[in-house]
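Readers of this paper often ask what the protein records in our data store actually look like. An entry from our holdings is shown next, in its original layout:
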Amino acid sequence: MTVLVTGGAGYIGSHIVRAFGLAGLDCVVVDDLSSGHREFVPDDVPFVECSILDSATVTRAMSEHGVDAVVHLAGFKYAGVSVQRPLHTYEQNVQGTVALLRAMHEADVDKIVFSSSAAVYGTPDVDLVTEQTSTTPESPYGESKLIGEWLLRDAAKAFGLHHTSLRYFNVVGSAVPELYDTSPHNLFPLVLDALVDGRTPRINGTDYPTPDGTCVRDYVHVADLADAHVVAAKKLLAGEDLEPVYNLGSGDGVSVREIMTAVAAATGIDFEPEIADRRPGDPARIVASGELATRDLGWTMSHSVEEMVRSAWQARQNHPA
């Protein structure tokens, strides 16, 4: 069995490729390297450098490598920036998914695991999000992910696509030091880069309606997340039916200020964060239940927040900017 991983040269995608290798499944990676890194893809994994908008090239890659299923991560993933760049976000995430589904149909590939986002929920009016919680995204990014789920649903009705979407929020840590988060917008690299550079990390907004005024999120270790994608793909390949969406949540949120405290403890660098304005598109709190994913995918959070921070710090130290 061979799985095509779009965005497989990125931080999350490369961890998923690694997890497939450990599970004994072959991968092919498609990535335009706009935010990914060629060195993140193992030498023995076929790599196609192109945008998913290039439907013809993606179709050819699927046919040439005998692809049986797709894990779709490629896209523009920055919620806050998407508010300033809505057209780019829709082009990459909506038109890109349309082009990918067209390529799958042309290549007769009918199984896909879609990397969605907890951003589809916006700011929920419940303490614990479930798959039945209303979807009210507050950024073009969140909207584009919800549209991606709709596209899969409609493709299933039209030509029998077998699919599931995994919704999650803050993915952190590293399974191995060679694979690490280089995003200019994600919390962990922002904080760790600041400490390495001798700057003070910053909190964006302390006036949210949360216990300490800072955003509360589900933080998920990237290795746990990667394993869930592999299980979902294997179940689809085995002909099993899955729910259309699953939350990969911890059920227990952590605030940005609490993350800062954990970072200080893991790094041994004592600091008091600077306070800045809120970022547009950032909801106050998203904490999700992972019970449905536990039932069907064996989802588990096997890493503590402290382990998430330590692994991210080790990777950052091993790869100075």
